[in-house]
Amino acid sequence: MATEAPSQAPSQDLQSLSIAEAKVQEPGSSSSSSNQLSLEEKFKIVRSIGEECIQEDELRNLLEKKPEPVCYDGFEPSGRMHIAQGVMKTINVNKLTASGCRVKIWIADWFAQLNNKMGGDLKKIETVGRYLIEIWKAVGMDLEGGKVEFLWSSKEINSRASEYWPLVMDIARKNKLPRIIRCSQIMGRTEQDELTAAQILYPCMQCADIFFLKADICQLGMDQRKVNVLAREYCDDIKRKNKPIILSHHMLPGLQQGQEKMSKSDPSSSIFMEDDEAEVNLKIKKAYCPPLIVEGNPCLEYIKYLIFPWFKEFTVERNADHGGNKTFTTFEELVADYASGVLHPGDLKPALSKALNKILEPVRDHFKNDSNAKDLLKRVKAYRVTR
User: Can you state the angle between helices 122-139 and 371-382, rounded to 10 degrees?
Assistant: First the structure.
């Protein structure tokens, strides 16, 4: 089968993207009408979410022809939420809804059970799922107007079982075993791990989800790319013309050197959404952030993918003999200063901590003052994180 040529992150006109994004509401504010955006503005905003897009021409055509495209995102309730899942997903969802899209967030409880999260205990998995929804509400995901739906996989599949399971079986029937096993990465597993039947069933089900939810866009991380490509290949098998568009977002790294992805099982690698101010400060202080080095620097990645999209700027406070205070309005300007040594990690890290704490403060307040949220957090913290 011919390999699709993905569209990598575009060399966008940053000024025009900035103007378009200025029309998108700030996190936590009420939704602004997407009608004020032109087709090109919608395209730039939606496309900016993805590190890779398969395919850009299909995305532009979809936004032109369909007033409310359906975007699918999903997650396994598997423990405490880190900032990539909390803040980055909120940024992306708000961009989508402001551009006229509808977002279906798939609470993949059955998938978490298949993947042995929370020891396969569905009651614990449900508790974690409710905790995650509380965080998105508190951090500022735009949930007004009903453009975002949280759907529990167990409930939805059971209610339309006669539609779902034949689809799963057909996907399984049309694919060879090695092709499905190569999708094990979506479970956080490798082909070298001890094989369970779940590694066969899980990708077939996740592929079926895309069609079951009638998704026009698969808006998931780069680690889910393989199964999304499988869905497009399945369209070829069944002679379906309209394929789901793949919009794969960047995966934020862990805070320590060489950690390509945050890990919930390693608290030092990530910042959790309800970490207190002191914890955030300590984790950033200990984070890998070598002077002059941009590549593989997690602190710079957090600024690029979290701080700039959230605040549209980044302010560094420092003594006059170190250059004085400076507000950066573009990431490129920040990188230039850092790579030249004008900006030192000793000044960048406190500024990053301050910005992150400002984002997380409403979440802390919610889990401190809301009795239901407080109880959920207490229970989730007591659960042992499983791989």
Answer: 130
Residue 18 is assigned to a structural domain of this protein: no
Q: What are phi and psi of 104, to 5 degrees?
A: -105, 110
Tens digit of each residue's pLDDT (9 = 90 or more) over 3-15: 455 665 544 444 4
CA–centroid distance for 83 within its chain? 9
Residue 23 domain flag:
no
Count of the separate structural domains present in the chain: 2
By the 8 A CB rule, do 322 and 267 touch? no
Amino acid symbol at 304: K
Q: With 60 as the cut, is the pLDDT of residue 194 above it?
A: yes
Please name the residue that has the structure tokens 């003999």.
321
Nearest-angstrom CA–CA distance, 190 and 184: 6
Q: Which residue has the tokens 């913290």?
A: 381
User: CA triplet 268, 380, 369: central angle to 5 degrees?
Assistant: 100
241, part of any domain: yes
Residue 351, Cβ density class (10 Å: 0-12 exposed, 13-18 middle, ≥19 buried): buried
Question: Phi and psi for 299 in degrees, rounded to 5?
Answer: -65, -40
Mean pLDDT value of segment 333-361 = 96
| Structure token digits, residue 223 | 């680690």
Range of the domain at 294: 277-382
- For 201-229, the pLDDT digits (tens) are 999 999 999 999 999 999 999 989 999 99
Q: What is the dihedral of CA 39, 330, 56, 252, to 10 degrees?
A: -130
Together in a domain, 304 and 158: no
Q: Is the pLDDT of residue 250 over 60?
A: yes
Answer yes or no: is pLDDT of 199 > 90. no
User: pLDDT (tens digit, 9 = 90+) per residue, 13-35?
Assistant: 444 455 445 455 445 444 455 66
- Report residue 384 CA to chain centroid gap: 23
Q: Are 85 and 130 members of one domain?
A: yes
Tell me which residue has tokens 């789901």: 244
What distance in Å separates the CA atoms of residue 171 and residue 180, rounded to the nearest whole number? 10
What is the rounded average pLDDT for all residues in the chain?
88
